[in-house]
């Protein structure tokens, strides 16, 4: 099937999209509309810039990506061989992942040519060097997360229970709410006897947003596999602290989540000029939400700084 080039991106909803929209609508525009088609040869310079900036990551995200890749590889090995890799070996793999991101980030010009293939750390793109305290924190988190991964309730299930059937590992899926496409990606879905268990790896601190994410997964599981809610177990594995948290499934909360999702989609669509093709209104219709927290870590600081300068010169 040939790749179809569209003037505007496909409409869909995800929890990450909702979070960006709530954080800053201008960032939302950059991320989903301004950057669209920025990989094409005939893209405008603004599209190219926003597309590049969209790819920027940071040390915390790189660590999270590395841990998820490690978990995915180890679980697939268990699925095939009923064994897990050596803890020291996978620690070195994640450390290599971090070091490679640092090396990629040393050559900005090379990254600009292939921003999707190489990594660029926010700390280096918008600064001269990695903050020493953050580097020390990442090293500590790396060791804690991998140790707690092996000690987690989910991995212990794999090692000690014979009646485990893995259904999905890091698969991107969609389902629909009121005919609107919803994207979800489960870290792990498996059956233990008659119980369906969703496990989600977290490398940061606890947050209520994580609970809502897992409830969304429950809706997906019910939709795709027709699993009754009482046969589900939704588990958060906080690898930094080593704590496992099971999310209770309340149908009233699930119904409220659906209402919240529809409301979120309606708010996004109010900023569309043509909803049928997902054409946005002009960028000026997407207000900024300046704050030290939002702006300091934003990938699109470069764009906003240019816009501010243009306004001053006008």
Give the structure's gist in a few sentences.
The chain is of the alpha+beta class and 314 residues long.
Structural key phrases:
single chain, 314 residues, alpha+beta, five-stranded mixed β-sheet, two-stranded antiparallel ribbon, globular, disordered C terminus
Taking the alpha carbons of the first and last residues, their distance comes to 48 Å
Residue-averaged pLDDT, rounded?
92
Question: Which ranges are low-confidence, i.e. pLDDT below 50, for 5 or more consecutive residues?
Answer: 309-314
Strand and helix order = HHHHHHHHHEEEHEEHEEHH
SS summary, helix count: 13
Q: How would you characterize the largest beta sheet?
A: 5 strands, mixed
Strand order of the largest sheet: 1-2-3-4-5
Any idea what the radius of gyration is? 21 Å
Q: What is the count of β-strands?
A: 7
Strand fraction band?
15-25%
Q: Give the overall form.
A: globular
Structural class, by secondary structure, is alpha+beta
The percent range for helix content is 40-55%
Organism: Chengkuizengella axinellae
InterPro entries: PDDEXK-like_dom_sf, PDDEXK_AddAB-type
Domain PD-(D/E)XK endonuclease-like: 12-305
Pfam families: PDDEXK_1
Please write out the topology:
Blueprint: H1 15-23, H2 25-34, H3 45-54, H4 59-81, H5 87-105, H6 108-113, H7 122-125, H8 132-151, H9 153-160, E1 164-177, E2 180-192, E3 195-202, H10 208-225, E4 232-238, E5 243-247, H11 251-269, E6 272-274, E7 279-280, H12 292-296, H13 301-313
Parallel strand pairs: 3-4
Antiparallel strand pairs: 1-2, 2-3, 4-5, 6-7
């Amino acid at each position: 099937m040939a790749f179809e080039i569209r003037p505007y991106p496909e409409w869909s909803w995800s929890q990450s999209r909702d979070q960006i929209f709530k954080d800053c609508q201008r960032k939302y525009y950059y991320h989903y509309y301004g950057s669209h088609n920025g990989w094409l040869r005939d893209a405008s310079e603004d599209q190219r810039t926003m597309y590049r900036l969209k790819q920027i990551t940071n040390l915390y995200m790189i660590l999270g990506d590395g841990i998820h890749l490690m978990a995915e590889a180890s679980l697939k090995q268990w699925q095939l061989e009923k064994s897990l890799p050596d803890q020291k070996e996978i620690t070195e793999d994640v450390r290599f992942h971090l070091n490679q991101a640092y090396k990629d980030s040393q050559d900005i010009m090379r990254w600009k040519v292939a921003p999707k293939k190489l990594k660029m750390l926010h700390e280096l793109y918008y600064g001269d060097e990695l903050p020493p305290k953050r580097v020390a924190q990442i090293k500590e988190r790396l060791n804690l997360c991998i140790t707690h991964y092996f000690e987690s309730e989910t991995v212990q299930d794999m090692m000690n229970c014979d009646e485990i059937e893995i259904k999905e590992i890091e698969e991107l899926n969609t389902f629909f709410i009121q005919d609107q496409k919803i994207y979800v990606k489960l870290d792990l879905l498996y059956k233990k006897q008659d119980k369906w268990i969703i496990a989600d790896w977290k490398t940061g601190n606890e947050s209520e947003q994580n609970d809502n994410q897992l409830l969304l997964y429950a809706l997906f599981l019910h939709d795709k596999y027709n699993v009754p809610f009482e046969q589900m177990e939704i588990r958060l594995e906080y690898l930094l602290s080593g704590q496992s948290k099971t999310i209770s499934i309340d149908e009233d909360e699930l119904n409220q989540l659906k209402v919240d999702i529809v409301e979120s989609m309606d708010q996004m669509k109010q900023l569309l000029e043509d909803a049928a093709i997902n054409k946005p209104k002009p960028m000026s219709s997407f207000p900024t939400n300046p704050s030290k927290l939002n702006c300091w870590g934003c990938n699109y600081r470069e764009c906003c700084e240019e816009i501010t300068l243009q306004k001053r010169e006008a």
